[in-house]
Amino acid sequence: MPCYRCGARQIDPVRGASPWKRAVRREAQVLVCPDCQRVHDLDLDTCASCGSIALICRLGEIECRSCGEIRLARAGEPLVAAGSSGPPGATGSPGPSGLSGLAAEVEAALSRVLGRP
Fold this sequence. Notes:
Layout: E1 21-25, E2 28-32, H1 34-37, E3 55-58, E4 61-64, E5 70-72, H2 101-114
Antiparallel strand pairs: 1-2, 3-4, 4-5
Region (Disordered): 81-100
Organism: Microbispora triticiradicis
Protein name: Transcription factor zinc-finger domain-containing protein
């Protein structure tokens, strides 16, 4: 998964903790690269109770890692709203094969590896 903000791909980490951070944006799990973490206007979701951006999204729930509050995520919301700018392929608009962004990339990679036309 690339950085939601700049589109940089995560590379194999050196030993130890990854410098990439997980966050929630528009109720979807995203990754933030070390360079983008330095930017103060990341437009990330915050906890309604404590205001923290230390959120994780899993199994349809969003949990605050600071205070522990858990709430249900709204299903069907787009990752990036129409008309907003984001990294290529993050808009959810279908590509030439009818698939959106990352799904189209995965389909193309599988086709190359498996020798599909």
